[in-house]
Amino acid sequence: MTGDSEMPRNVALVADRISWEERELIKAAPDFGLHIEWVNDESLCLGHPDAPSVRDYDALLLRSRSYTRGGLIATLAEAAGVPVLNSARAVHACENKAVLRTVLRTAGVPVPEFRLALSRKDFTKALEELELPLVLKPVYGGMGKRVTLIRHADTAQSVYDYVEDLGHAFEQACLVEPYLGGGTSVRCLVVGHELVGAAEFASGGTDWRNNAALGNSSRAVAHDPDVLKIIDGVVGELGAGIYGVDLFGTPDGYVVNEVNHAPGFRAVASATGADIPSAVARYLQELNA
């Protein structure tokens, strides 16, 4: 906490829009000597070496949901000497599922088996090498959108027609991977080096996808030692920051499905009771100390 006489540290919350998470972060900030204000990620016009639009702030908290804006803004803000959460390296890795999987796997963090499909030839070969059911997902994207479960070989090529005919440029880059988790996944909310809360999400109704953004059911889960080991591996490779680490359970243990650099955390907070906005504000306070 800080005394009333101290000037609050200014933090730019860089995002394309304000949702529940952003409102809660702004509300929690004064208790930790911070003033957080929303800055639209389309309004910075970065590129000048002195970057006056970001040098007015003590730190940038990136919450952009764009597939590309976060990494670009982080790179230029860091070059201007402004502390950024998360780092440009971490954001660039998280924005691209193929890069993230490769970085983590190289560091010894368990990830699902996958194939990169940039063409129908790639996709067909992936079908030959991996066993059904399989999941086809875009390299760039989130919130469960355009993630498709392929149960039968005789429909697979028809599914890929939509990627080939309707996808534009980077949207045609996809991953093919085994269907894991049996309809459940675990979202771990990390702040700094610490696992603040973990919740299991289960698919419901007719939608097989288990994603908090889709309104699936959730429950708190214990901080399993195996989960903590994986979190340590993720943070050790990407650096301390604010992450939503999504895990699938397998017979051989958990694997990292995705790491979100601007995670939604309302569902985890609701399921676990964790005060995530305060944890983030406290970490920002320490960052600027």
Automatic annotation (TrEMBL):
The keyword Ligase applies. The keyword Glycosyltransferase does not apply. InterPro entries: ATP-grasp (IPR011761), ATP-grasp_RimK-type (IPR013651), ATP_grasp_subdomain_1 (IPR013815), LysX/ArgX_preATP_grasp (IPR054562), PreATP-grasp_dom_sf (IPR016185), Rp_bS6_RimK/Lys_biosynth_LsyX (IPR004666). Pfam families: LysX_preATP_grasp, RimK. Transmembrane segments: none annotated. Keywords: ATP-binding, Ligase, Metal-binding, Nucleotide-binding. One of its GO terms (molecular function) is ligase activity. Residues 101-285 form the ATP-grasp domain. NCBIfam families: rimK_fam (TIGR00768). This is RimK family alpha-L-glutamate ligase. It comes from Streptomyces chengmaiensis.
